[in-house]
Amino acid sequence: MARISPRLIKDAYSISPLLPYFLRANPNISLAKQELKWVQEELPQSEWRKAARSRHNLYPLQYILGSQPFGSLDIICKEKVLIPRPETEEWVLRLCSVLKESAQNLSIVDACTGTGCIALLAKHELKDSAKVAAFDISTDAYQLSMLNRDAHKLDVNIVKADLSEPAQLMHICSSFDLILSNPPYIPLSDYKLPVTLNGIEKSVRKFEPKSALVGEMEFYDLLVQNLVRPFGASGFVFELGYREQAEFIRKQFCEEEWGSGILKDYSGNVRCSIGWKRGSNLDILERLCDEVL
Amino acid sequence: MFAFRSYSPVSARFRFLRSFAGSCPSGVPIPKKNKLPPRPKWLIVEEEIDEKFLKGGRGPGGQKINKTNSKVQLTHKPTGLVVTCQYSRSQESNRKKAREILALKLEEQQNPENSRTAVLNLRKSMVKQSKAKKSNKKYKEIEAKRAEDKERRELEDRALLEGFSDDEPL
Ligand SMILES: C[S@@+](CC[C@H](N)C(=O)[O-])C[C@H]1O[C@@H](n2cnc3c(N)ncnc32)[C@H](O)[C@@H]1O
Predict the structure, then answer these.
(1) Same domain, B44 and B76
(2) Residue B142 lies in a domain
(3) pTM for this structure?
(4) Closest to A198 (Cβ–Cβ): which among B57, B60, B86?
(5) Which residues of A touch B60 (CB under 8 A)?
């Protein structure tokens, strides 16, 4: 990480003695000032100093404040569960606006739900036109997603289950139309590298759960073999971080039966693999694709 | 000592304020807060807007990064007006607020005299004047100094929040 210049620290200090503590996580004063403003708005004064110290240590702001906005929901965030990302928020909202136009009575499952953000926002947006379920292997994620569900009073069926145990998944529901997931997708080799080498942010490595982040192809394989196929789904949206993962998923389906494409995020990065059964009511998913595979 | 004081910029400012307040025709009522021109939402046509999310440009994103800011930038295609908004942690709030700001700016361009911002500014200065009139000189001095400080602080805050250029790395 680049060293912060003494000049910058002095400038920050003259605005507020707490501001310099935000410079490690935000190398520019405007962003640091904003974070301090949010801390001061959302926490009692007695906690500002502690918050500033934690932030200096690169502890995630969302764990300090206890939440992350996701669409129009405020998602409660706690240690040991991954913080929802804006790229995820973006594709979930895009997906819902396409589904709202036409799809009715959908049965949806969100695999590897973490805080529950994807399932809860989908239910919030689609209301009675969708039945939504979600599951995660981690007890912390399971408990937090239940807490979030109750906080927003949304009717989502949440279960603690392992994607690699088909027997556990059978309990959730007998069939699903649409499978959504943001599984761990960072190969271990990249997990160890800094952002500048296409690795990950120090704050993420230090404080977010490794078990929510590290994965390569195995989760996509499980999603297809244990959910899409046995549950008779006609569509899926899987978040990912690499084009190779989208190509791997494409190869699992025969082209005559399934259409497939890629969604890019607001930064232009490959972000989701999308699939739809040709001729089904979910072929509207094609509209989400920036590129057909 | 008295003569010296009367040359200080603060009291000079007061003489100006007083004379300004005095010359205002007393019959004109201050626009009521609830009777301001409405927010000109109708000026926003989604098809005319180009929306961008600026969250630190390139880089891998997704699970690898945890960004806290969510800056929204709107370009009004017919006029080329650009506004940005990042006051909130919520992208949804920033999108709404950015549209409100854009609408106000468009109205200012189209209808400078009767726009919401023009009436707001007029109201602000009239309220200030009537307050100044009511209070005694000493009180006025304190009050104006305060207002001046507040305004300066607000300006600084605003400049910091909105003013930094978009090519600055996030
Ligand atoms: C990248 S996080 C995504 C969380 C959330 N969906 C989101 O978008 O913020 C991946 C999640 O997968 C869960 N997970 C890992 N292995 C799993 C498995 N075998 N079965 C179910 N969930 C698993 C982790 O506990 C973690 O919560």
Answers:
(1) yes
(2) yes
(3) 0.82
(4) B60
(5) 195, 198, 200, 241, 269
